[in-house]
Structures are given as C-alpha cells and as structure tokens.
Please model this.
Amino acid sequence: MNKYKNSIIIYLSALFSSLIVYGYELTNFTMSVDEEFSDNFNNTISLGRWGHAFLKVFILPEPYVPFFTTLLSLAALSLAAFLTARLLKLDTFNASILAVLYISLPQFAYQLEFSNQSDTVSIALVASTLAVHYFLKGKQRILSFRTFIAVVLYTLSISVYQSFAILPIVIYIAYITTENIRARYTIADNLMNLIRFGAIAATATIIYYCLNGYIQSKLGLSSTYLQNKVGWDFSDINNSIVQDIEYVISYFNGRSYFGLKIYSTTMLAYGVVVAKLFMRRQITTSNLLLPALLLISPMIMIAALCSNLPPRTMLGLSVSFSVIITLSLMDIHSNAVKIGVAAIALAIGCANSSKLFYSDMMAYKSDSNNARFIMQSIYNKYPDFSPSKTPVYFYGGYYTVKTWKIDNSDTFGGTIFSWNGGVNKRIHEFLRAEGIADLKMIAPKDVNKFRGYAVNHPQWPHDDSVQLKDGVLIVRLGRLPGRD
Model:
C-alpha cells in the first residue's frame, strides 16, 4: 500500500507541475499552424508516422479536441516523468524533485503547440520509457521475452515520431549514469551495456523502416521530409563539422531555442556531480564520461544529420536536464534547498511556456481578424458571391507586423496567412475550421494559370486585389506566390 502511495505522490507532483507550466495552453485554445487541417492521415503516413496515423484512426480523436487533447497529453507527459523517476530507483522525495524538473523544462511546449499530434507524441513518450523498463526487467539480455516487448514498444514509439529513435538511448544512459554513481562498474561493463542497448535501438529502428517502407508502398505515399533535414555538405566537410559542433554547443552556451536556454545550467550541475565524486574519492573514468555523455546524448540526431533540428525533436532534453540536476542535489541534506531549486525551475518554465503560447494566441487572433476582413472585402466587391459555386484562389501571403513574435521560438507566433509565403490550401482550411467560410478550391492544374492573372492585381487590402477571372475569384494577398 505504501508503494502505491509513494507512486501517487510522484505522479501527482509531475501532473501538478504540468498544469502550472502548460496551464495557459490548457485554458486558452489557439489554432496554430498545421492545426487547421481536419484529416492528416495521408500526410502523416507520407512523413513515416504511421503509428500516429493508426492511433488517430482507431483510438484518438482526429485532429484533436480542445482542452481534452491537451489534458490527455499532459497526463501522459506526467506519466513519462514518473516512470523516468521510478527507473532510477530514487526515494519518493528525490523522485518527486526529478519529476518536477522533468516537467519544468518547457521542451514539450514545442510539441503541445501542435494539438493534432501532441497526444500521440506524449503516449510515445510513455512507450519509450517503458521500453527501457522492459529491457532492464529482462536483465539487459538481448534474447528474452521482456526485451522483445521493449523492441515492440521502441518500434511503435518511432512510428509516432522518428525522433523517438534517440529518447530511449538518453533514458538508458541516465540509468547507467545513476547506477555508476551508486556502485563502481568498469569501462568494459558500461561499454557492453551500451552495446547491448544499442543493438536493441538498431533492431527497433530497422524494423520501423521496414514496416514504414511496406506501409507507404501499399498506400502509395511517400515524402522527402527526412532527407531534407540532412545538412552535411561533403564538398566542404570541415565547415559542416564546425557547424555541427556549433549546433550542439548552442544548448550549452544559452543560444538555443527560447525556453531551452536553462539547459545550459546542466554544465554547472555536471561540475557539482564530479566535485562530489572527487570529494568521496569515487572518481572513475566512467563517472567522468557517463554524466557528460548524458548531457550531449539528446543531440545525437543533430550530430548525425548536421542539422539544427526543430526544438520539438529534442525529446531527450527533459531527461538529461532533470537527472543531472537531481544527481547534483542528492547529497544536500536540506530538502528546502531541493524544493527551492525545483520551484525556481518550475516558475521559469511556466513563464517561458506562457510567453510562447501567448504569442500563438496573438497570431491566432491576427489570423481570425484578417480572415473576416478578407471575406468582407470579397462581399463588398461582389455582393452576389456564392462560396458554394465560385472557386477562390488566394495568391501569396499576408504579412502583419508580429510584435508578439519571440526571437528563436521556431513556429510559435507564426501566422497561417503568411506561412510558407501563404499557402492557398492552408488558408482555405483555416477559413473552414474557423467557421468563417467554406470555399471551393481551384483544380491544382489551374494554379499556374490564375497565378498569371494575380500578378497584375494590387495586393490586399486594396479594393482591386479581389478580381473575378474566368469564373474564379482571385485574391492577391502577397507580392510573391506561396508554396501551393
């Protein structure tokens, strides 16, 4: 009974923290970029996220339900934090501190922004953490039934979002780092453990790619999205290596994405951990290398692709951040100090997360207002316009002064009317999702023809930006065409 009580305390610590950090998003619905589409099945299959697609078809609401989807995401995120804390065999108090720190780093804000996938990603977080649990329950043997379950969970996680290929590795490194501080293991022992788990990671990744190829070929869908993320320039390999190192270092010198700059404090925590081990005469090569490996392990994919990947892909940051700081606090006898550190991290996380989602709220208001003004312009010019009969083509994007946009915040604060230079289909979907207008679209084969007409029009909000040509209503929003 006591065991369950302790588990409830740890989980509720994480859940309560998530409500603080992400409370603004939970209570203020915003339609961010990509949330305007009601059916994402083909798109997610083409991106290789068939696990996400099938979860949405058979279990979860597509694309999302305001409040419910966010609440479910936070509940699953909190469960992942709880499972990570339990994995490290910490006492209830320190496990609760770790869970709070896990939530306080607002990396998940960059996933929660996309309500159409935040629920599946948070479930995959749980599956990734359980994969490590089952591998350890199988006594870290490659051939065991529990290891088989670990591989299945690992594969399913990757099928939701490919960045999950890295997260279980980070979690496992966190585990062996903690175990090495408790007891001395040789470099050979640690290397063999890493190789064994590496074999599990490789197996899951290979299975995922085989299944992905089969599913995409059956459905006739594919995408070059992942290939486009590769940044290596083999004609100037030295420059690529320097750039790659700079991408990784940005997470340690405070130049990374907004809200994640606090990750640079892990360097200080690493110094404290090493100093404590030195004072206790427990310094070993493993105890020096493993905590350092823990800190850089979330950047494995950055290093592999030589690409400054979006912050939503950096799923291991919360693990490394919470574990190294908890380890640095372990020998402090004052619980008040530990609570103080966790509370400060939580307050910073809440402030940064709220700023991010507020910028999205302002962008959403801007899009909604502009959508209504554009439709008003259409009816002012053509009072008899029938949305069910006359197709509409939006040329280019409309750019507003984004005073709310935060520097280095990825897609936060971006407007749908200006995304990718203004995308005709995206604007149509937004108008439909907002209940403003359900407009007919032109056939894809006619896009170039009506682009040719649009270039001769002035830009909106000029009255003549709206013109009827060959039975199609053309609205020129921007100077250049978008990525239609």
Observations:
- The radius of gyration is 25 Å.
- The beta strands are 392-395, 466-469, 472-476.
- The mean pLDDT is 95.
